[in-house]
Amino acid sequence: MTFWALYFAEWRALLADKAIVVTLFGGVVFYSVLYPLPYLHQVPTEQTIVVVDQDNSSLSRKLTRHADASAKIHIIAHANSIDEAKQLIQQGNAYGLLVIPEGFRRNLLLGKGATLSYGGDASYFLIYSAVAEGLVAAGMDAGKQVQLMGLLARGENPTLADQNINSVNINAVPVFNPSLGYTPYVVPGLFILILHQTLLIGTGILGAGQWRKKGYWQQVSPMAIFSARMAMFVSLYSVFSSFYIGYCFYAYQVTVLGTLAETALMLLPFLLATTAAGITLSCLFTRRDLPTQIFLLSSMPILFVAGFVWPIALIPEPLVWMSQVIPAIPAINSMLTLNQMGADWSAIMPQWLQMWLMFAVFSGLALAGIRRRQKEVNQAH
Q1: Composition of the chain by helix, strand, coil, percent to 5
Q2: Separation CA 140–CA 67 (nearest Å)
Q3: Stretch among 128-132, 244-248, 345-349, 354-358 having the lowest mean pLDDT
């Protein structure tokens, strides 16, 4: 068979397999909507809470007003007890509660300090952090008001007193994420991971279904079938990559600071290395259901060990070293560095060369695996 005949035979084998078609075409489109969905509003705001004011003083009421004025918090009710506030939370009317203790104003004026209590469901980590941030800001503002009252009571000049309390003004300017949202931060890395995992699943299912029986793949050399399969999957995933990094990035307003040529050049070894890795791993399977199960279960560990949703310093070093054989790891870091941080090409050169090295190593392993599968089928028949 010529190369082009083998290339189109690969396409026919892929399109005739419903499991692969659903996984690749359906999965890529489905995940492009599913994964960014929780982050479409960028940052959580106006989270509902219940206040239990046990002090009922002028300062506690001012604290409540300041908390409600925060962009992060919206107070929907004032409960008479913590049990009443818990019922509102259990009914889904609020996400948390703020408890202002009795003697709040008196203790602050006496310089004894006071403790504000907050309760909420920490499983919604974005909502929990938004409410906590809003309450901390309101509490600090209330503390400044008490300090100002004390200074004025001692005869300080009002202007000087205000300057002493607010002596430092923070002017925070985000460098890499101007909107401070989650979409520009999370989605680029997730899309690379989706491409990586679906590509591994597709090559795994195709190989696992073929290695156990005779077919066109056995009539050619290992290099021929490897080259045709590489060309077929890389051409398909070039389209998928263009859809993600082109249309989806634009639709979700993801920042793209790298040029089109740099992005394409970065993705080339990633697609080659991932396809070669998929062909290599497919030689380990003869059951078509196993690739999907194994690669889906590995998605979350890869996501965390990539170091962009969890600090890399908190991940055990052996896991970090082991993860360097996964093509998605340098690809995710390269994408974030090049497109989201606007770094020069030299900054991702080590990861780029690493992906080319992966391609070379996995290509050799894939050829050996195909050769072994061909011998096993010949011996069996």
Answers
A1: 65, 5, 25
A2: 11
A3: 128-132
Q: Give the span between the Cα atoms of 198 and 173, in whole angstroms.
A: 37
Q: Which of 322, 331, 330, 333 has the alpha carbon at shortest distance from 298? A: 322
Please choose, from the candidates 242, 237, 280, 240, the residue with its C-alpha nearest in 3D space to the C-alpha of residue 367.
280
d(CA 245, CA 195): 11
What pTM value is reported for the model?
0.73
pLDDT in tens, 12-55: 999 988 888 988 888 888 888 877 776 666 666 677 888 888 88
DSSP states along 30-75: HHHHHTTGGGTTSS--SEEEEEEESS--HHHHHHHHHHHHSTTEEE
* Contact criterion met (CB below 8 Å) for 358 and 278: no
Residue 168 has pLDDT above 60, yes or no: no
Quote the mean pLDDT of the chain. 82
Residue 290 burial (CB < 10 Å; 0-12/13-18/19+)? middle
The distance in angstroms from the start CA to the end CA of the chain is: 22
CB-CB contact of 74 with 46 (8 Å): yes
**Three-state DSSP class for residue 22:** helix
H or E segment at 174? none
Contact 30, 68 (CB under 8 A): no
With bands split at pLDDT 50, 70 and 90, how would you rate the model's confidence at 208? confident
